[in-house]
Design a protein that fits this description.
Elements: H1 7-20, H2 33-40, H3 44-56, E1 60-63, E2 67-70, E3 75-77, H4 85-91, E4 96-107, H5 110-116, E5 123-133, E6 136-146, H6 162-170, E7 176-186, H7 188-194, E8 200-210, E9 216-225, E10 229-231
Parallel strand pairs: 3-10
Antiparallel strand pairs: 1-2, 4-5, 5-6, 6-9, 7-8, 8-9
Amino acid sequence: MQPESHQYLGVRDDIAARITGGEFKPGERLPSERQLQVGGGVARGTVREALFQLEAEGVIYRKERSGWYVSPPPVVYDPTRWEGFMSYVEAQGRSPSTETVSKTEIAADGMLAEIFSRPVGALMYWIRRRRSVDGRAVLFESIVVDASLAPGLIDHDLNGSLTSVLKSVYGIGVARNKVDMRPCALTGEEAEALRVKSGLPGLNLVRTCYDAQGRVVEFDREHWRHDSLKISVDIRVR
């Protein structure tokens, strides 16, 4: 028998089993906390602890003023391949969308000057976008592009594939893609943009993209919901 302080783990296991068994399907709304409380014969606070635990595990997620939902399957991402968000999400039979939050001109500071091998003060474009899968916000990205390589970029519609705009309008392709990943907590503008509770686990992905001449074309900081992305790499060992 579990100690009283750990009762929520039993409730967590019960809800998880009902999800695994197909009673609650991906994207489906769970019964209210009150209904789960009555059904399990436990205190509402215990039910809430169980739900918070499942949220931390990525099994369920919460919509403000709507309730708890079963998390949909994550998007599978292979960082060794160069494909735009729109392409690899569509290839998995999902529906991607992009919303440009802001796009503006900035002057390169010391950090950006070093990354792009450009002088301090060089013109850059700063683009911030929210990206969704099947109508659910999963990614908030902050992108810096060297304006000398893509003059007038921010005059274009960027609510689609930036990769396609760079290739079709400016003839810029990516020959090398450096990616760093680490777990993080979603706070501040990232949590607000993804409509999650501040402090929820996330994945921080930093991408530096180079063209065939070795020039940095794009520097991208991404913040993903922790339940929305699955990293999968298939590498042949020599």
